[in-house]
Amino acid sequence: MTKIETAKMILKNSDGIAQTCDFTAAGISKSDLEKLCHDGIITRIRYGFYQCADDCDISEAQYISKLFPEAVVCVESALFYYGYSDFTPREWSLAFPRSVSQRKMKLDIIPFKPYYIQNENLEIGKSAVTIDGVDLAIYDRERTICDCFKYRNKMDNELFAKAMNAYVADKDKNLVKLSEYAKKLRVYKKVTELMEVLLNG
Where residue 52 falls among pLDDT bands split at 50, 70, 90? Predict the structure, then answer.
């Protein structure tokens, strides 16, 4: 098997995106990788990550899963997933620990907006879903609503209002959990005041 065939097989077995260590484990050196890139066989997505140059079938969800395994889908993207917004986000909203390398954030292949979260709050409301056939971490409904209050100044007024009303109408809402999260995330007073108006109005 040639190095080109080996490289393509590695990428195929890695769902289209492979790391330098995957290639070196199969006997393809860094200089081989450079040549494969130069010859237009593979493309470097980001430092240490590669895909086939002619592969146009990789979804944005796949890129997120491979390039940002620590990321959590949040705010606008989570609102859209739960049906609290009918506006398709132009970019992915992704939560990252504040300690994440800024070099990692320099990526042009998918549009995304990072939210940097304190480590003690990163796991609150974190759950898992499948988007476009890919397993991704996402904040649950209650964490997403709390984040809407936390990042209120960054959100469109109409989007915020629609999200609140949609949550109140959602049969799967959990007000006890919402209250618990709101206390931990220090938005309890704001959340409680608005929820009382919407629930009793």
Answer: very high
